Amino acid sequence: MPLFFWGGTGRVILQRCGAEIRVQGYGVQRWGEEVRGGDTVAGMGSRDTGAFGGNVFKIRRFLRMRQILRSYIDIMKKIVWVVLLSFLSVAVLFSFRFGKEEAVQSEKNIILRIWNVDSFEGGTGSRTAFLSAVAKKYSKKNKNIYFLVSSMTAQSAKAAIESGNIPDILSYGIGMEFSPQICAVLQKSFAGGLIDGVPYAYPWCRGGYLLFSKKNDFSNVQEANTVISCGGQNLPTVALAAEGYFGTFPEKTSTSAYVDFLNGKYEYMLGTQRDLFRFASRGEAVYSRSLNAYNDLYQYIGILSKENISVCLDYIAFLLSGDVQKSLTSLGLCGIEYKGTFSNEALEELYEAQPKYTCNVFNSESCRSDLATLSRECMALHENFEKKAESFLQPIEKER
Predict the structure, then answer these.
(1) Are the C-beta atoms of 267 and 226 separated by less than 8 Å?
(2) What are phi and psi of 289, to 5 degrees?
(3) Where are the domains of the chain?
(4) What is the model's pTM?
């Protein structure tokens, strides 16, 4: 039979179940203890009801203890999850931050070294300064990439490379003499930079050979009245022989040939684009005609880096782009694929001329010496140089 009990929090129905009493109603606070619906109450007495006798509740709360234990376990689970999630969050943030800092640090550390080795006299400016200016423009468009551009002689560059001190990019011409095996393969090809058909070097600017005369008449070029201006590692006698001239021509240093020509000792002088600006600076009225059969006055570019090849290729592509190539006229040199605005008519004529042959930029000193000797012999003996030098000459299919 159900018993009713009135407590401080509401009405409670107690149902006797054998030796136990089950709480079926609302919770009630009794002597500082709370009894909730569903709890099992045993030996319960009440002064108010007198139903069971006694003044004290003796409560066995099996389910209550289980609830407490479950609550404790739930709390511990939450704590564990909070700690675990906090740890994972810190780990993720740390790895993201570390990875980001590492990437930024890596980008900041991309410093490319460019060495420039001049193998022939230029026009009016420094090729090293030009490459440096191009590098600065490239860096502005490509953050965190920097360049160190240096001038080197062929001897110092060769010694450094042989000792393991290797630049990322090398600008050079014939006479440099180093193994193409350490070069990366380029994306563009040119006859003078091929080894077994593989492009290891490509020209980024060029000059050219010209005959100079104080008269606008080039019909009487012969050994008695023509001097060859020599300088650098280039082969001007090959240029003259390839044009079909015959004779034993005097060869002098560029300064001596220049002075002798101006003083009237020679009617003609074989020189380069550099002499165009020498004559102009002195206000001399001199005529010129470009020689187009052979040209080795090319400044090549190559990649020696093993770690930053893609960046080096991108820089070279920028160097060969239209705007950069057109600005080469400021150096008194010609671009390879793009025509700039020429202030010198003779230099523009030189650009328009398409050389027929060149020599390989990787040729050894002995190979160049043999070619130069052959050119002198053919001119002296009136032999067909083009046919004799077939194994030396590299046909230029097209520059542009």
Answers:
(1) yes
(2) -140, 130
(3) 3-60, 72-108
(4) 0.73
